[in-house]
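User: What would this chain look like folded?
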Amino acid sequence: MELRSGRRLRSLPMPGPRRSQRPPDFPDGDGSDWISDRPDEMLLQILVRLRCARAAAHTSSLSRRWRGLWRHLPELSFRDISADALNAALDQVACPALSFLEVDILQKHRVMDPVRVSALLHAAARLAPADLVFRLWGHCKDGNIPIEIPCFERATSVKLLMVGLYLIPPAGGVEFPLLERLSVTGCRFDTEELVHRCPRLRVFEVSQWFYGTTVVKVHSSTIEELVVEGNPSNIDIMAPVLKRFSLWVSTAEDFTLSFSAPMVENISWYCSPMVENSGFGEIWRLGDLKLEMKENVGVLRMRITISVGFPVRLLSYDMVSHLLRICSTIKRLKLDIRPFWGEETCSPNCPCDRPRNWRNKIISLTALEEVEVTGFGETDHEVDFLKLLFRSATLMKSMTVVLAPGLPTDEDCEEIYCTFEANPHVKCSVYRSTCKD
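Assistant: Here's the prediction, encoded as structure tokens.
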């Protein structure tokens, strides 16, 4: 176009494609997927870090290159999955031997058929996991139907949470040849037989609350660490190389304990009666008991309630004395006595006071140096218990007694003072509230 001035109006050039703002050394893209072009080994490392088989399978929506890769993962976790979905997923796994397998079937997917439970366990065993975690809710009505545990030949660690079921070892005496760590929770099984099938077992954990094993028997020459939780009626431990032992139990009146572990170094025990009817003497009850021992220094705490109001059913002093006897290396003993008031008292010939020979016994407490008794009521039973400790702990250095409320006068403490004077080698102290004698 020519203007009146004679000049020509020229059109601006059409803009070309915008150049990439990438650095000079960054090559132009060619439309390829840089991640998907990596080797399978690298992609599998990425998927393993997801820690979830479902999430790994969903990566197939990113590219065809990712489709089916999850089937080759050496580590698989199936969480919040139903039995049907799990069975279908396990059938697709292409890795012949897994390093880790986790299955978590929540209570909302409870498996009602014991045969189905057995099939799922055997499906997991076919994948030969070295480390297995299997959680499943069954039904308590099937608690008497035995479910055979398959042999996990490659497994070095197995953790089973099988609520409401009854498990038995493989038929024919088959062992778990490589198993070193075993944890079983919520189901009934024969601990003695299962431990016998594990010749390399070093760590064993049993947790049975409300439903499960009533007898825990562990005789093993290999176990170094043992954890027992629940409400068993009988515990029998014989482990010559055991080093760490943790016990957390609620006990009934028929509870018995046998423990032999000469090399044990660390102990953590907590015992609480289901009902407070465990005691010794006429009126004493065991509220709870806690023992901690680390590096051969032990602290024993016992909370003792006094039933003044109604007859106390005997006897758990056998358990208390047994505990003191097998824990001869404890260095500090703390006893907490708390009163429990009622309306009636025991008769003179009440069976709660039998057997009476505990007053004359001697328990070997060769390492005990410090004793602290809180809530001391200055009854004959309590004074006799102090005398028992003085006789049993020949190396005792200090005895501290904190009186119960209502004992403000020296007359009330006369027998305590006499007992202390008979043991001049021990530093003895009596506290009333915040005052020290």
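The helical segments are 40-48, 53-58, 83-92, 114-126, 191-196, 317-326, 380-392, 414-421. If you want, I can go into more detail on any region.
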